[in-house]
Design a protein that fits this description.
This protein is mainly alpha-helical and 258 residues long. 40% of the residues lie in helices and 0% in strands.
């Protein structure tokens, strides 16, 4: 396993907490801020079946963004970032490469929510993402640059064919910035995005193509997208004893918490 600057269990649990906090923050907005007049709700929740747009989900099984060599690198890299072990599935088993493929082929890959205009001086970590590349362009430029470095350093080998210890060495070099990549790619920037996107794919709702069979949620005890949690609001620190359910349900799910 890669000894990077994070601990597997801490980042998994922390990621789940951050996601919950974000949802709570979104729910705290006033109705007026969301475009409608303020309302007072009492009694039952004003819900109508089928009124919301159903999320489309990631369809198919073929890769539509990654080329075959790129896919080989991604599958090997994410398998080292979150390896398979007795605790739970690794990123490869959880379908993270497919998640990344669909995200990079869509609006995220296009950098729809990024400012990509120049100038592009090297920024500070506090400034966040500073690059002329959209996420898709960054992956497309970084992967062959990494493979060129690997080939020159390991007698023409591809990253996927390296021993695990050598793969870890390369990933650590990318994380620290000690590996200089050609093509205008900043190795630390790419590693940070790859790690973040791997986390997202591992813990996302399965509708986006990752977290296959909700295995990551089962591992950390996250019950998922149940409709109603009001009975648990004041029960701090208690485990919710229900199997996880995604946006599109789960096998045997009939609605409600149970």
């Amino acid at each position: 396993m890669v000894k990077l600057s994070f601990d597997r269990r801490r980042f998994l649990v922390g990621g789940a907490i951050v996601g919950t906090a974000g949802a709570a923050a979104a729910a705290s907005l006033h109705d007026g801020e969301l475009g409608g007049p303020p309302q007072t709700i009492s009694g039952s929740v004003p819900w109508q079946e089928g009124a919301a747009d159903a999320p489309p989900g990631a369809m198919g099984t073929d890769f539509i963004f990654f080329t075959s060599p790129e896919r080989g690198f991604i599958e090997a890299a994410v398998a080292r970032l979150i390896p398979n072990d007795p605790v739970g599935p690794g990123a490869l088993e959880a379908g993270v490469p497919f998640f990344l493929d669909r995200q990079l082929a869509g609006q995220f890959g296009q950098g729809q929510h990024y400012f990509l205009g120049g100038p592009w001086p090297k920024g500070t970590p506090e400034q966040g993402y500073q690059s002329r590349f959209s996420p898709a362009q960054l992956y497309r430029a970084a992967i062959p640059a990494i493979e060129r470095y690997v080939g020159a350093t390991f007698n023409g080998a591809a990253f996927a064919n390296l021993a695990a210890a050598d793969q870890d060495k390369v990933l650590k070099g990318l994380e620290s910035g000690d590996i200089a990549l050609d093509g205008g790619v900043d190795s630390k920037t790419f590693f940070a995005m790859l790690l973040q996107n791997t986390r997202e794919g591992y813990l996302s709702d399965p509708i986006y193509g990752g977290n296959k069979d909700m295995a990551a949620w089962k591992m950390i005890g996250f019950p998922g997208a149940h409709y109603d949690y009001k009975e648990w609001v004041s029960r701090h620190g208690e485990r919710v004893p229900f199997p996880p359910v995604g946006f599109k349900g789960r096998p045997g799910w009939t609605g409600g918490l149970r």
